[in-house]
From TrEMBL:
GO MF, any single term: lyase activity
Protein name in the entry: Sirohydrochlorin chelatase
Coiled coil ranges: none
Pfam families membership: CbiX (PF01903)
Keywords: Lyase, Metal-binding
Amino acid sequence: MVANILVAHGMRQGDQNEALTGFVAQLLEHESYPYDLAFIESEEKSISRIMTHYLNQGETEFKIVPLLIFSAMHYLVDIPEILAQIKEQHPNINYRLSQPLGTHALMQEIIQQRIEQVHIDKDDKGKVAVVLIAHGSRSYTQAHDELETFNHQLATDYPVFSRTLYGDISFKNDLDKLAKRFSKLIIVPMFLYDGRLVNKVKKLIAQMDIQSELLITPSLNFDPLLKDIISARLEELSF
């Protein structure tokens, strides 16, 4: 039997890990496959500790699905380094690491729904733009490339701009300038749920001199389609 491990960022302090555990359990409650939820930022439920638990039971094959939207530092560096360390200690194990969630086609549907749920008067259609805001990275720009590809694949009549919280394409650089070009901006936060990071985005936006109307949608908020994305990522991994 293969062990399925979902990996979230998490935090070393506070109740975020407990909240994430509840969100994921609710999302996947009707799925037939077993899984464990590990956290990059956790001692108690670290990737290493959960894999060691299975190794002690004789399991040597693992499917790893990061609950990350795009490929930034955690996906490209942190998780591979942890897995490499475990492999060094246990050379007999085999593991497969899935692609991030945001590059799956169903993510387009979720974001498209967020945009379409915003009511725009017919007369205002030509004065509206969409701004996607993802986490971003100061050093690992593959995530920015994936966001830009995602942008171009969206089926919408509105102009769409790719921005991030961190890195060279941060919304902090030019959201005020974009606001001068359009009477309304639909802001779509591309985060797992409306938590600390989304609140930070909203706080930073509130500190800017924005001249147009901002329509901030909910984030992914563990949309039911995420269940299908996670299942698909697991199915894509084979030994």
